[in-house]
Amino acid sequence: MTPPNRRAVLRAAALAVPAAVGLGAVAGCTDYDDSPDPLLPLLETAEADASAARALGGPEAEQVATVRSTHAGALRREVNRLNRPRPTATSAPPATVASAEALGQRLGDAREQAARLVPELPAHRAGLVGAVTAGCAAAQQLGDAFGRGQPGPLRRVSAGPLDDSAVEALQQALAAEHAAEWVYTTVTAFLPGSYDNGLTEGREAHRDRRLACETLLRRAGATPRDAQVAYRTRDGETVSDQDSATHLVITAETDAAHAWHGVLERTDVAGLRDVATQALVGSATRGTSWRLDADENPAVIPLPGRG
User: Fold this and answer.
1) Closest alpha carbon to 303 in 105, 92, 66
2) CA triplet 36, 38, 40: central angle to 5 degrees?
3) pLDDT by residue (tens digit) across 209-232?
4) Cα–Cα distance measured from residue 213 to residue 177, given in angstroms and rounded to the nearest whole number
5) Which of 199, 194, 197, 123 has the alpha carbon at shortest distance from 163?
6) pLDDT-above-70 percentage for the chain
7) Taking the mean position of all CA atoms in its chain, how far away is CA 101?
């Protein structure tokens, strides 16, 4: 039996009120938004993608299925929380794909679908949908057929005035970018020449984001915080070889993802959300590549920046 939606419950409660209360009790319910939940298409797509990945089979597709199932679960909980009426007709994609390339296209489409929604959502939902965006991008790093590749430099935007909460979140993102730059420079001595391109690209990506943070803060009338002279590794871990160097880079990308996810949840400014989503995607994709190199399992974090 399908549970009643919130509108139905409200109507039933209104009918139970004694007549002496009058119509004013019903009028109090008119602020409820009974339009379809904008997250519903993301949920339906995630469910279909998970089914398609399982049907395709193979180790990479199974990881994609896990990622998209996690997305579906998180989105379902949020959709059920608001419990808006569901449309009778849906446009979910088919639950099968013909090839890994087709699954990769589905991931790319889902990534763009989620990213378009981020600017217009309430802050807590913007964080969730931004993480779904980044999770799809991270899953694409599992193979060339899925569309593997790192994003380019940030698209520059104008965020305008920012409130104190957004400024503090951006300062924390700046701190994470300072630390990531330091990490990419520090580990160079412990990694072979085959890592040179990845190290250079990662260092440049974090420099690009650091400069964007500083620009946005100054335009908001805030003073960007300086980098530390040096950084201490988590739990005092010593960087002494290739494995420890690789794990330090993974930590830096994980920390940056958390910081940028925090920006999404603490601002309503569309321009800043755009920058934060781009940066979150960048750390998610780069972190996945390093996890693959380190043979970590799972290599893909389904919802980067959360938890």
Assistant:
1) 66
2) 80
3) 999 999 999 999 999 999 987 787
4) 9
5) 123
6) 89
7) 23
In DSSP notation, 102-136 reads: HHHHHHHHHHHHHHHHGGGS-HHHHHHHHHHHHHH
Q: Comparing C-alpha atoms, which of 213, 218, 219, 249 is closest to residue 234? A: 249
Rounded Cα–Cα distance for residues 280 and 263 (Å): 10
* Nearest-angstrom CA–CA distance, 239 and 35: 54
Residue 269 near residue 292 (C-beta atoms within 8 A): no
Are 174 and 145 in contact by the 8 Å Cβ rule? The answer is no
Give the span between the Cα atoms of 293 and 281, in whole angstroms: 19
Size (the chain), residues: 307
- Please check whether residue 174 is in contact with residue 213, taking contact to mean a CB–CB distance below 8 angstroms: yes
Q: Residues with Cβ < 8 Å from 277, sequence gap 6 or more?
A: 115, 118, 130, 133, 134, 260, 264
pLDDT digits (tens, 9 = 90+) for 127-183: 999 999 999 999 999 999 999 999 999 887 777 789 999 999 999 999 999 999 999
- Answer whether 129's CB lies under 8 Å from 46's CB: no
Angle, alpha carbons 145-148-149 (nearest 5°)? 150
Give me the torsion for CA of 187, 188, 193, 198, rounded to 10°: 80
Residue bearing tokens 């446009």: 91
Cβ contacts of residue 21 below 8 Å, gap of 6+? none
Burial of 193 (0-12, 13-18, 19+ CB in 10 A): exposed
**Sign of CA pseudo-dihedral 217, 218, 219, 220:** positive
Whether 299 and 146 have beta carbons less than 8 Å apart is answered as no
Whole-number pLDDT of residue 31:
57
Neighbours of 102 (CB within 10 A): 13
Q: Compute the radius of gyration of the chain from its Cα atoms.
A: 22
Contact between 187 and 245 under an 8 Å Cβ cutoff? The reply is yes
